[in-house]
Design brief:
Protein-Tyrosine Phosphatase, Chain A, 14 helices, alpha/beta
Length: about 400
């Protein structure tokens, strides 16, 4: 009941600011990107392709908002801002002369009417996997929330390899659909549209194909798309390596869902030599989907050689209980506490331990779950936090 009231509130707020800012989305070609993982990278890929092609473009992602020449912080743990800010940014984009607007669109933002009035011309789906069931309750509800992106869209860009493709393809019979895939026959594949990217991982191949399909539909020349993909170095906090002269690799990644964690570890595992270790440091957020916690433990045990479990925005939950639930997924897979699995609730100490005590020459240490974020939530308060600063501090304290 309370959530329904909140959704109506957001709808009314959206209507008010749509009127106040004079229907700004109608003067833009709005590209919405939704999905469980890969949204931010795909938004940035589309944005950079359009910009490098000489188009005037603005965007909102989980990183920030880029409106014309200016960048804006969108707040703590926020992907889709509230309706007031969305409409304000759209109006500023119009005033800055933007033709295109690329908007990262979460299931929460779609479900809560925060994106009402955006009038998407193109809707892109990266993938839909297990996440946010604390809010949506069922996977079907979650999928239906994602599908709201296409309410008034003219074109749907769909991942044909993704499990929900059949559902979305059938639901969207009334609009044009373009598909991309690595493993299926689709409109855009590495064979039909060869490209090169410095981004690691199969999942980034999908992100690139999604961006290729979207920008090709906007008539951007293929050669321009290929040039941008070849030079795009990625997004802050997404598989970003920190090099300070150490003899092992340290990577920071935003992976905070089972699918993202598996993709990250599966990508890094082959890069570790037979006598070296893949070390992962991660946790799970408090007051969020508890069903994913043992799943992430299971995935970590499958791919990582050493696991360090720690805090990731525990909020009002006990971080030790969250870690207990992750550990349940590790049990029975040859993981031994104190030998291959370690519990260190303090995230700074966990990172320090992984870097200064566990990491050896040739190892890979990957810090997952926070990425670019600049705060950590304990109780109901946000405290300054940066994985980058914690890593650099730990590396600075190396004795060897």
């Amino acid at each position: 009941m309370w959530q329904r009231i909140k959704d109506i509130y957001h709808l009314l707020v959206a209507v008010f600011f749509i009127l106040l800012y004079r229907f700004p989305a109608r003067k833009l070609t709005v590209i919405g990107v939704t999905g469980t993982d890969g949204k931010t990278t795909t938004v940035n890929l589309i944005f950079h392709i359009l910009r490098e092609a000489g188009e005037k473009v603005s965007m909102i992602s989980s990183m920030n908002a880029v409106i014309g020449p200016k960048k804006y912080d969108t707040g703590f743990h926020v992907t889709t801002p509230d309706p007031k800010d969305v409409q304000k940014f759209l109006r500023q984009a119009v005033d800055a002369g933007s033709k295109y607007f690329v908007l990262e669109s979460t299931s929460h933002g779609l479900s809560q009417n925060r994106l009402f009035g955006c009038f998407f011309k193109v809707g892109v789906v990266t993938n839909v996997t297990h996440e946010h069931l604390d809010y949506h309750k069922t996977y079907k509800n979650y999928l239906q929330a994602k599908a709201k992106l296409f309410g008034r869209a003219e074109l749907a860009v769909l991942n044909k390899d993704d499990e929900p493709f059949k559902y979305l393809n059938e639901k969207l019979q009334n609009i044009k659909r373009v598909t991309y895939a690595l493993k299926s026959k689709a409109d855009f594949t590495p064979k039909s549209f060869p490209f090169k990217t410095p981004l690691l991982g199969e999942y980034n191949q999908y992100n690139c194909l999604a961006a290729i399909a979207a920008t090709s539909s906007l008539k951007i020349p293929a050669q321009q798309i290929k040039q941008t993909l070849a030079s795009f170095r990625g997004v802050e906090g997404r598989m970003e390596e920190i090099k300070l002269g150490q003899d092992f690799r340290v990577i920071i990644d935003f992976a905070h869902t089972p699918n993202a964690l598996e993709n990250t570890l599966k990508t890094l595992k082959p890069l570790v030599a037979s006598r070296q270790s893949l070390i992962v440091v991660f946790g799970c957020a408090g007051l969020r989907d508890i069903q994913k916690r043992p799943k992430m433990g299971e995935i970590a045990a499958k791919y990582a050689d050493l696991i360090v479990l720690t805090a990731e925005d525990p909020r009002t939950e006990d971080v030790n209980q969250i870690i207990d639930q992750i550990v349940q997924g590790c049990l029975g897979q040859g993981v031994k506490e104190g030998t291959t699995l370690f519990r260190i609730p303090d995230r700074g100490e966990a990172i320090k331990f992984a870097i200064q005590k566990l990491a050896k020459k040739g190892d890979i240490v990957v810090i997952c779950g926070k990425g670019h974020e600049q705060s950590m939530c304990y109780g109901k308060k946000e405290y300054p936090w940066s994985d980058f600063k914690a890593v650099k501090k730990a590396l600075g304290g190396l004795k060897r």
